[in-house]
Please model this.
Amino acid sequence: MKIIMLGAPGAGKGTQAKKIAAKYSIPHISTGDIFRANIKNGTELGNKAKGYMDKGLLVPDELTVDLVVDRIGQDDCANGYVLDGFPRTIPQAEALTNALNELGAKIDYAIDVDVPDENIVNRMSGRRACVDCGATYHLKYAPVKTEGVCDTCGGGLILRDDDRPETVQNRLTVYHDQTQPLIEYYDTMGVLKRVDGTIDMQDVFQAIVDILGA
Ligand code: ADP
Ligand code: ADP
Ligand code: ZN
Model:
């Protein structure tokens, strides 16, 4: 099963993608996580990506597409995967479609997690991310058991620089300009499914399971 998660920054793509990956035993591939890991390790890719990410801009397609095409060609992706945060532009979507075409494959589902802009700043300012394993929490909606400590690995929690309200506004503008057109792209392809992302995260997941099958 090959799945794409669509939706604004903070809509809950990562939260749902992790649950999908666990239930259907497929890898969760987050380009944001890949870039953050590269920044942490001080790689050339990380150094290039950081300037864009800090401003709330997209990393250029040239730095993004090959990375994902390589990743989905690995053995653990043979039974499918859930892509979270890619594609984010029409050229990225076209590159993905072409790469899959060459393998005689296609995306099965593009799930749009729909959350209005008004809710997003609130979501992002409460999001906390683990510095060690990348797990995500929310101060109010997904609290950790012990304050400031990751439930999974015991790492420290931070507010990502790009989750500050000033940057979130830029990211929303970028989302509407460059990423939202993908909804129509995948609708035309006949694989678009929409879910209401404003409800409780367990209920969002149930709506997704209803689409994918139990
Ligand atoms: P969120 O989950 O909040 O939407 P991500 O972790 O997916 O954020 O992405 C963080 C940042 O990484 C983006 O704002 C962007 O700068 C960069 N990024 C992630 N995926 C892509 C992509 N497919 N194309 C370009 N930039 C990307
Ligand atoms: P994205 O990957 O789309 O940027 P995340 O999955 O990281 O979004 O979610 C953004 C923030 O909102 C996180 O702090 C997460 O815990 C929280 N969150 C996710 N889904 C919901 C939901 N349905 N209701 C309330 N908060 C949510
Ligand atoms: Zn952790």
